[in-house]
Amino acid sequence: MYFREAEIPIDIHTGKLQDWLISRRHVKKDWQKYILPVREKINSAIQDMPVHEGIAKLLSGTHINYFHCLKIIDILKETEADSKNLFGRYGSQRMKDWQEISKLYERDNLYLAEAASILVRNVNYEVPSLKKQIAKFEQLQTECDKKIADYTKKESTSQSEFNNVCKQIGISGDKIKNELVEKLKELPDMYDKICSKIVGLNPAIDLYVLFTKCIINEQQSQFCLPLIKYIAENGNTTVYEWSFGEPPLSIEPDPIQIELDVEENRDNQIDFGDDAIDFGETQLNSEDAIDFGDADLQNEEIDWGGIELENAEKNGSIENIDVNMSLEESGIVVEGGGNMGGVAKGNDALTLLDNPKTRTLFIDQLMELEAFLKMRMYEISADTQYNTFSSLQDLPIESTESVASMLDLVQVSIGQMMEKKINHLHNIKHSPRYVDTLAAQLKQKVTISKKMNSQIDLTKQKKIEAHDQAKSIFPILNLIIDKTKELQYEIEADISKKYNGRPVNLMGGIKSL
Questions:
Q1: To pair with 245 at 20 to 30 A between CA atoms, which of 173, 213, 337, 353?
Q2: Are 213 and 392 a contacting pair, CB within 8 Å?
Q3: pLDDT-based confidence at 76, cuts 50/70/90?
Q4: What letter would DSSP give residue 511?
Q5: How far apart are CA 262 and CA 177, in angstroms?
Q6: How crowded is the C-beta side of 353, counted as CA atoms within 13 Å?
Q7: Helix or strand (DSSP H, E) at 345
Q8: Contact 345, 252 (CB under 8 A)
Q9: 366: buried, middle or exposed (CB in 10 Å: 19+, 13-18, 0-12)?
């Protein structure tokens, strides 16, 4: 099958279009130096243009080329029709300027070289650059979404941690230190609640004491779980009473050394006033001096109530003085020996569950009892050859349910003692540094939450700005693509005319973008 020459297409790669035009001698190599005068004339002619919608559309969004000049001339044929003379020439300077520009373009196919240059620049640089900017702003929006999600998670975590700690302690978190100090008043009630359940541990305590007596000896069993047994019998007494076996006459606990913040403590400060205190100090004259009755003390003797020791010695009556006068008759009160009538101060004034040392000892003994009951539960439930209790005839036989009930009560007591609220309040009362640390941590979580909120607002604003910038580039990109496609078709058509209408295809042009 044979094709006519006019039907054979001419395929030209867009990137090599200028080289192709130069190699086919359609344009000169030094065409660029001839284009500058043409551009100057276009800039001058464009200053004086009639008001026309078509011209305004041609001049928007693209570089003016030869094909635009031809369209401008067609429009001027309508607007400048009145200046046409009998010979068909136009007397309008506008028409003359643009006709001259078109002739300069047509010389040595200068217009074709410039059009090819514009097409290559748009395809290789302008359009990809705008697309990269849009992709950059879209990527920025995606990153903003990720940051917003990350900031939201951190803000939620910080706020949740703050709320959890405040909920554990039972404060609102508005005035942290004041509320923490106020919560210390609840500690005695909490300890009393724990002590009320210690009485229920007596069966477990008796079982453990009996086990110790059988395994070791009866003397050692007396020292088994002493603090738990004492609290179960006497309650949460002071350390003084636990140590000396008798309650103190008075309790003088050490004051809680917690410095509140200035802003929080401002309303609680005592107003001593600013006025100076008048002590009534007036200058006394010699006449107004206070009379202490010692004016003639040197010359007078002290009156001892008529007792004359010298006469008593001479008369021998000094031996008749009764020196065995009773303390009641003399009015002198002597305190009893030992700790009777003592005052509980410092750590001795604290209760057993409040004192750090006895508190730790109490928890240790509870865990010791728990370990014993767990081992007993294992020996009862597991079918083992070696059973410690089976070899002890003096021990009662307990059921699994009874031991499990004892174990539950012990674990409940341990859980109450290890409760986070009690631990926080205990540490707050006995460590001022702990108060500062806890308050600083809570305030830091609030600060982080606020900072994350501000970062979220800032990131959302950045996302909106990136979206608006990308949105503003889209019309410019679409306009350049449309103009470039139009220019590509015009170049293909112009080259086709030079080859007797053969079809021309610019490969890798704007159509492939």
A1: 213
A2: no
A3: confident
A4: G
A5: 11
A6: 28
A7: strand 343-345
A8: yes
A9: buried
How do residues 9-40 score in pLDDT, each as one tens digit? 899 999 899 999 999 999 999 999 999 999 99
Residue 386 scores a pLDDT above 70: no
Helices (H), 170-301: 176-183, 187-198, 202-215, 218-221, 226-234, 239-244, 262-265
Q: Which pair of tokens denotes residue 44?
A: 């001058």
CA 121 – CA 14 distance, rounded (Å): 10
Question: What is the full DSSP assignment across 442-477?
Answer: HHHHHHHHHHHHHHHHHHHHHHHHHHHHHHHHHHHH
Residue 62 identity: T
In degrees and rounded to multiples of 5, residue 84 shows phi and psi of -80, 135
Would you say 414 and 428 are in contact if contact means Cβ atoms under 8 Å apart? no
193, 421 Cβ separation under 8 angstroms? no
Give the integer Cα–Cα distance in Å for 358 and 338: 23
∠239-240-241 over CA atoms, to 5°?
A: 90
Query: Which of 276, 415, 251 minimizes the C-alpha distance to 345?
Result: 251
Contact indicator for 121, 130 with CB cutoff of 8 Å: no
CA-CA-CA-CA dihedral for 224, 228, 234, 238, to nearest 10: 110
pLDDT at 267: 43
List the one residue out of 511, 473, 487, 506 whose CA is nearest residue 129.
473
Query: 444 phi and psi, to 5 degrees?
Result: -65, -40
Q: H helices within 46-126, ranges in order?
A: 53-58, 66-79, 93-106, 110-121
Residues 6+ apart with CB under 8 A from 166: 172, 173, 442
Q: Whose CA is closest to 350, among 426, 251, 425?
A: 251
474 neighbors 134 (Cβ within 8 angstroms): yes
